[in-house]
Amino acid sequence: MAKKKINIVLILAVLGLWGTVVYKAVSQYFFSEEVKTAAVASDYNFKARKIERDTFTLEKINRDPFLNKALLRAESNPTVVPRAAVSGAKRTMPVKTVDDKPKAAKYWPIVSYYGYIKSGDKNELVMLKIGNKIHRLHKGQEVEGLMLNKVFKDSVEVRFNKENKIVRKG
């Protein structure tokens, strides 16, 4: 019996809330009153006023405010010094050598660490996914230019192109 009374009270409360929402939505369109605008007297003079501009000159800064060092600036009008003609001497330009083969940049492959198996003699076998292949490696072993340096429970340290990275599990 008490549950039935609570349900009736809650239904009436919900109907009351929805009724007010519907009334406010519908009253905007059907029960609108015309709003009368009153002329507001104003003391403001709308004539154009002359704006006086504040002028100033910028001074040359002789120090860098961030590095706190003196600035060395080139002169805006550099002086041109004529060269003295040297008779009989040829000027030679240094020749730059260009490498025949440009060095191909090797990027780190995608490496994932899946875990390790530790045997009794501290020989650990690590499962690494390099690129799209899964490899089983021992410490110090190298695969596809990637060398396994150190093994931890949650991560491994690998070396590729003289650069070390730590790869975490998962």
Which terms summarize this structure?
4-stranded antiparallel β-sheet; 3-stranded antiparallel β-sheet; alpha+beta; 170 residues
What report would you give on this structure?
- With 170 residues, the protein is α+β, with helices and mostly antiparallel strands.
- The protein has one helix spanning 2-30; strands at residues 63-64, 69-70, 111-118, 124-130, 133-138, 142-143, 146-151, 155-160, 163-168.
- Strands 6-7-8-9 form a 4-stranded antiparallel sheet, with no helix packed on it.
- The mean pLDDT is 79.
- The secondary-structure element order is HEEEEEEEEE
The count of strands amounts to 9
Beta-strand percentage? Answer: 25-35%
Distance between the termini: 57 Å
The side-by-side strand order for the widest beta sheet comes to 6-7-8-9
Summarize the structure.
The protein is of the alpha+beta class and 170 residues long.
Strand-helix topology:
Layout: H1 2-30, E1 63-64, E2 69-70, E3 111-118, E4 124-130, E5 133-138, E6 142-143, E7 146-151, E8 155-160, E9 163-168
Antiparallel strand pairs: 1-2, 3-4, 4-5, 6-7, 7-8, 8-9
